[in-house]
Amino acid sequence: MKESIQTIAVFAVGIFFIYRLLTGWMSANMDVAIDSSRFHLNDQEDYLAVDVKLERGEYGTLQLGDSQVRVTYLDSTVGPPPISLAGMQRLADKEGKLNWEKIAPEPHLNLHAKEKSEFAAALKVPRNAACIIEVTFLTHRRLDGLEWLGGFHWGQRRSSSVSLPFPQEATPTSSPKPQFP
Predict the structure, then answer these.
(1) Domains contained in the chain, number
(2) Within a domain: residue 175?
(3) In a domain, 154, yes or no
(4) Most buried among 9, 44, 56, 152, by the most CB within 10 A?
(5) Per the confidence metrics, is the pTM higher than 0.85?
């Protein structure tokens, strides 16, 4: 009787772990952080630089698919079209040399356990606009050759941030004239 219960318990635990693996266990194990900075371009526009930092957790490998940054403006539904983050595709190589002109046949980058990567984008935004920055990544959990077991499914990782305009410089309406002795 005791052996039967132990066998059932071991079988149930095995089923539980297989279920967890197939439903994405450890796949969301990635931190996404956004840093942004603004620089004045002219009286009408600023440059907005977006730096996205990824840090993989301690288990497994994630394959990185498409990634986009979308910027919208507070109090407005209009904004520039979404743009891709730079450096998200694997470059082709031949005989140990990179070819910056071609994308590799398998273009997706892998983010391995405890690995960190940064990707960036830049665009022009209206100088006085408060910008809402949204970043979305498609990711796939690499099962080390067992992809057929869980099926191929792209998950999404999203994060957002806000970039406020620089404060308007105080322009006094009248200023006292300096007095010199």
Answers:
(1) 1
(2) no
(3) yes
(4) 56
(5) no
Side by side, which strands form the sheet with 45-56? 30-40, 45-56, 116-126
Which tokens go with 109?
A: 């980058």
Query: CATH code at 116?
Result: 2.60.40.1470
Question: Residue 113 has what DSSP assignment?
Answer: T
Residue 21 lies in a domain: no
Whether residue 46 contacts residue 105, with contact meaning beta carbons closer than 8 Å, is answered with no
91 within domain boundaries: yes
Find the domain containing 70 and state its range: 27-163
| Contact present, 154 and 136 (Cβ < 8 Å) | no
